[in-house]
Amino acid sequence: MSRITAPLLSFGASGAIAKTQVYSKWKGRPYVRRYVIPANPDTTDQQLTRNVFAWLQNVWKFAASQVTEAYAAYAQGQVMTDRNAFGKINIGPMREEADIDLFMFSPGAKSGLAAAAAAVTPGSGQLSVAVTAPTLPTGWTIDRAIVAAIRSQDPHSGTLYTMFAGEDASTPYTVVLTGLGAHAYNVGAWFKFIKPDGSFAYGPSLLTTGTST
């Protein structure tokens, strides 16, 4: 049964009315939708989406703070959370892939520019990543270069969620990720910028791979 606030004026409501309409709130915003009984045909397309969604949800739990910060900036001012943004950016490109080569560590936010290049040098238990800065707009400066990595895997069946990340605030921008096993990793590199008004911008991650020894 629907509940209302200020009954005569109907300032707010929640619940279903006669199996025709459902009233609720999302992120503090009231909405109404048609009453439906969800279908669950479990098609191949749905399975692909669900598999990648589940993998991403687990990765988010272990995501580096630099990654969640970039997604929080992307989601700011939109009707979504940083976690929602993480799924939105990644599910579509990855749902039919058997690898995570399209996985975006940073979506880019506030007009941030992509790095010009990222070169990975493997080492014993580590990856050294040299990140080349783009040409900056007038008044912009670089706050730091950021690199993150996760074990290469199939997002439909993968169970490896640990993420490694590091940063370098001075030129030349070289980030060394340590504590890695002798495995292949997907790597993302991006810059955090300071704009002329003092606010931050985040570049989209430049994607590459590397195998530590």
- State the CATH architecture: Sandwich
How far do the termini sit from each other? 62 Å
And the CATH topology?
Answer: Immunoglobulin-like
* CATH class division: Mainly Beta
Shape designation:
flat
Which radius of gyration do the C-alpha atoms yield? 21 Å
Number of strands: 13
How would you name the CATH homologous superfamily?
Immunoglobulins
Helix content: 10-25%
The secondary structure category is: alpha+beta
Run of helices and strands: EEEEHHHEEEEEEEEE
Number of domains: 1
Uncertain stretches: none
Summed up, the helix count is: 3
Kindly report the average pLDDT value.
90
Strand content: 35-45%
- Main sheet attributes: strand count, strand direction, barrel closure: 6 strands, antiparallel
What's the short story on this structure?
This protein has 213 residues and is an alpha+beta fold.
Key structural traits:
single chain, 213 residues, alpha+beta, Immunoglobulin-like, 6-stranded antiparallel beta sheet, 4-stranded antiparallel beta sheet, 3 helices, 13 strands, 38% strand
